[in-house]
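WARN retry 2 of 3 for item q-0093 after timeout on previous attempt; input resubmitted unchanged.
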Amino acid sequence: MTITVFKHVRLIDGTGAKPIERGLLAIENDTIRYAGKSEAWNPPPDADIQEIDLTGRTILPGLIDCHVHIAAECLPDSTLNGPWGWTTLVMLRHAQNTLAAGITTIRDVGGRHHLEFSLRKAAELGWFAAPRMVLAGKLLSITSTGSEWYDGMYREADGVDEVRKAAREQLKAGADLIKVLATGAVLAPGEKPGAAQFELEELRAAVVEAAKVGKIVAAHAHGIEGIRNAVIAGAKTIEHGTYLNQDPRLMERMASEEIFLVPTLKAGFDVIEGDRPGIPDWILEKSKETQADAMLSIRKAYEAGVPIAMGTDAATPYNFHGENAMELYYMSQAGMSAMDCIVASTKNAARALGWQSRLGTLEAGKLADLLIVRKNPLDDLRSLADRGNIEYVFQGGKVVARQFAGTEGIPEALMSGAWVCCR
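OK item q-0093 returned
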């Protein structure tokens, strides 16, 4: 057997434990064999050991983004239209940019005409490198202006029976979860984010259909009534959760039942900060109206013990795939510790996906999805969004993205057959 050993490295294992300053991580094939203190490593006597010295570097689990839209283009008006062939190329570009930025797994919560399922199939066949993908297919909505604004992303469904049918359609297509709109949206014209949309029984119908095949429901929910409906109905993740701060008892319930909050702060900041030409006034106004509450809700939920999983809402206006890790910095600005921001993007994110036995932490037996960076992210979370800081991205024990600096120290056997560079 051949075991690759990364030595003299700072280990941030994703569990929230204190970093190990001179740690060691060993991988065999696609799996982590050991992660911990160097002195506790006992290599098998018959192993072929390949050592890589990572003095001064930090290694942490590959990051997980629980809320993306890989088919969208980050356009100023947030629309999704145009030829399907173009969308397929856009998805490929987004997938590679995201992977090169250290995001080794994504959860897409609204694609386009199910094109994302073909993208995933091609990636799994090894045609190109891409993040691991958890897919929702089309999101379920009441009759809405959003279905025209986002061609192929919405599946309108009115009434319990229609919701059942719509959910079954997504599951038949290969969906890993069902996404529902429990409230209006910031980025749909004419909708109010605070207003509830699907009624409680409609939401329950989606949850029941998903549960029949062991799947969960993710609920887009800004307003407190919609959040409350989604929690009562049995949704596992609350996307955005903008006005969650209005109901402390609901936060207590989410904490006790391990219902995850996926905040997506980056989407708002990418609209309201900096020079953002072309953004419609109605998007700008709604973003400004909601951002302070979104920040407050994270702080209150964090204090209440609600599990938080990282999500970015890429690709809303100027919210580019590949810049995902800035979400960690924004979460810290809302009051989370730097370490808990990393946990939200690794261990908690894997739990939200139901993949905690496979991903999310540097532990023996888990897949070797790794991020190797030059700087200690606990000193500055923004460094995780700096492409120049990322040296290597491993997925399943193989290098899938790297800097142009060369492959010195990385055995050829570890290079994936399909990899991307970060520039």
